[in-house]
Design goal:
single chain, 306 residues, 11 helices, 76% helix
C-alpha cells in the first residue's frame, strides 16, 4: 500500500505531465475543425481552459513536494516550451497562459517531505476533478473520431492522431484511478505495459512528423520514416516481452537507445520550428509536446533499468 506521501507526490507528478498534455490535445483539436463545426471548436476551447485551471491548481501545490528527478527530466517543461507557446499563440490568436510555464520553471523538487493531511485531502479532490474531466474529454475525442470515420465531419487532424490522443487520455485516467484507489503496482508488469504503450506512441509521432513536413524536407522525412520503422519493431518486441518470449531487459535497453535518439531529433525539430527553419504544417507547440513525451518515456525507462 503506497504511503500518504507517495500518494500526494505521485498524483502531483502525474498531473504535472499529463494535465499539460491534455490541454494541448484540446488545443490541437480546436485548431482542426472547419467553420461548420464551431460548436466543437468552442467545446475544445472549454476543455483547454479547464485543463489550464487544473494544471494551475497542481502547480500551486507542487513546490517542494514533487521529486527533483521529474522536474529535471524535461517532461514538465523543456527549454523550448515557453517560446513554442508564444509562437503558437501568435499563429492562432489564442491566448495560452505562459505564466503557468514560468511558474513551473520556478518549481523546486524535494526527496524528503513531511506528511500534511490537508494537502492529501486537496490532492484527493484534484484527482477526482481530473477523473471527471478526462472522462469527458475521452468521450469528446471518441465522438470526433466516430464522426470523422463515418464522413460526418472533416478535420485537419489525422484519424490516427485522434485515436492516439484518446489512448493517451485512457492511460492518464487509468493511472489516476489506480492512485485514487491506492492500488499496489506490479513493477515488472507495469514496465512491460508502459514500454509497449510508449513505443507505439513514439512510432506514431514519427509518422505524424513525416506526414506534416513539407514534401521538400526530404532528409527530415526520411529520418522520421526510419524512426517510425524502428519503433514499430520495438512495439512488437515489447509485446513479445509481455508474452515472455524475449527478456524485457533486452527491450528496455533497445527502447532507451532509440528514445534518446528520437528525443534529440524532436529537440532539433522543435528548435527549427520556433526559428522558422523547417518547412511544415506543424504548429511549434506540437513539436515541444512530442519532445516532452519522449522525455517522460526516458525517465520511465531509466527507472525500469534499475
Amino acid at each position: 500500500m503506497p504511503t500518504s506521501m507517495d500518494f500526494v507526490r505521485q498524483s502531483l507528478e502525474l498531473h504535472l505531465f499529463f494535465a499539460r498534455i491534455m490541454k494541448e490535445h484540446s488545443f490541437f483539436l480546436e485548431l482542426g475543425f472547419t467553420p461548420r463545426d464551431s460548436n466543437y471548436t468552442q467545446r475544445a476551447d472549454e476543455f483547454r481552459m479547464e485543463f489550464d485551471r487544473l494544471l494551475g491548481e497542481v502547480v500551486s501545490l507542487s513546490n517542494g513536494i514533487v521529486s527533483q528527478s521529474v522536474l529535471k527530466s524535461g517532461e514538465v517543461i523543456t527549454p523550448y516550451t515557453l517560446k513554442a507557446e508564444m509562437a503558437s499563440s501568435y499563429y492562432t490568436g489564442l491566448r495560452i497562459p505562459t505564466e503557468l510555464t514560468q511558474e513551473e520553471a520556478r518549481l523546486m523538487g524535494s526527496d524528503s517531505v513531511s506528511f500534511n493531511p490537508r494537502i492529501e485531502e486537496r490532492v484527493f479532490m484534484i484527482n477526482q476533478w481530473a477523473i471527471d474531466l478526462v472522462t469527458e474529454l475521452i468521450q469528446f475525442k471518441a465522438n470526433i473520431l466516430t464522426n470523422v470515420l463515418s464522413c460526418q465531419m472533416f478535420t485537419v487532424n489525422y484519424p490516427l492522431l485522434i485515436d492516439h490522443i484518446m489512448r493517451e487520455a485512457d492511460l492518464y485516467l487509468r493511472m489516476i484511478k489506480r492512485l485514487q484507489n491506492r492500488e499496489v503496482t506490479n513493477m515488472e508488469m507495469e514496465a512491460a505495459q508502459q514500454e509497449m504503450f510508449w513505443n507505439r506512441i513514439m512510432a506514431e509521432h514519427s509518422k505524424f512528423i513525416r506526414g506534416l513536413l513539407d514534401p521538400t524536407e526530404e532528409e527530415l522525412f526520411n529520418t522520421a520514416n526510419d524512426f517510425g520503422r524502428e519503433f514499430d519493431e520495438l512495439t512488437l518486441a515489447s509485446k513479445a516481452a509481455m508474452d515472455r518470449t524475449i527478456p524485457l531487459a533486452q527491450v528496455t535497453d533497445a527502447s532507451l537507445q532509440a528514445t534518446e535518439a528520437i528525443r534529440d531529433f524532436k529537440a532539433q525539430g522543435t528548435q527549427g520550428l520556433i526559428e522558422c527553419k523547417i518547412k511544415s504544417i506543424i504548429i511549434p507547440l506540437l513539436g515541444d509536446h512530442t519532445l516532452r513525451e519522449a522525455n517522460h518515456y526516458l525517465r520511465l525507462l531509466k527507472n525500469f533499468e534499475k
